[in-house]
Amino acid sequence: MSVLKRIGRLFAKPEPPAREKSMLELSPGDICEVSLVTYEVVGSVRNPGRNAAMLSLQDGNDIRYLHIEEREILQYALYEPIDGRLDNPNEVPTIIDLDDRSYHLDEEYEGNVHIKGRTPFRQGGEQHVWQFQSDDYRLLRIEWQDGRFMLYEGDKTIPGDVKVIRAS
After folding, report:
1. How far apart are CA 161 and CA 158, in angstroms?
2. What global pTM score does this model have?
3. Nearest-angstrom CA–CA distance, 90 and 94
């Protein structure tokens, strides 16, 4: 190595540290922790129009879904899939009674989604979403895409309970 190269390295700026992925940027193969449980991200459904993602998380045989949306701050909700059936997306009610709890329609929207990995839906496209909330702050989420419904029940999660463990 020449003397000039050695001198040049002495005055070169150090490389900035690699930027850590945010929860919104996680993809299949990454590891995260939600409420002290470690999960592997096995799939993601991203809605770039809303700056939101629904991550499919797996811990052993358990599958959960973490909805992340960036508004003023990042908002998180952890869901479990539930059994249920609806026949027509045009007939989703504004109030749903489920297990002695009434859920009221909080928000309804649609958007084009991009899918990666293992998710309830096989391909991206137009997705319609209804988000409900009960008086005791439980959440209900209904998704419709390509003629198929998915129903989830869950709770909001505080940002301090969610962190990236390993990102590829």
Report:
1. 6
2. 0.87
3. 11
**Alpha-carbon gap, residue 59 to 144, rounded angstroms:** 25
102, two tokens: 């009434």
Using H for helix, E for strand and C for coil, what is the string for 48-72? CCCCEEEEEEEECCEEEEEEEEECC
Q: Which residues of 140-158 are buried (b: 16+ CB within 10 A; e: fewer)?
A: bbbbbbeeebbbbbbeebe
CB of 115 within 8 A of CB of 121? yes
Could you tell me if 113 and 124 are in contact, meaning their C-beta atoms sit under 8 angstroms apart?
yes
Q: Give the CA dihedral 3, 7, 9, 11, nearest 10 degrees.
A: -170
Instruction: Tally the C-alpha atoms within 13 A of residue 9's C-alpha that lie toward its C-beta.
Output: 6
State how far the Cα of 92 lies from the Cα of 150, in Å rounded to an integer.
13
Each residue's pLDDT tens digit, 105-143? 999 999 999 999 999 998 889 999 999 999 999 999 999
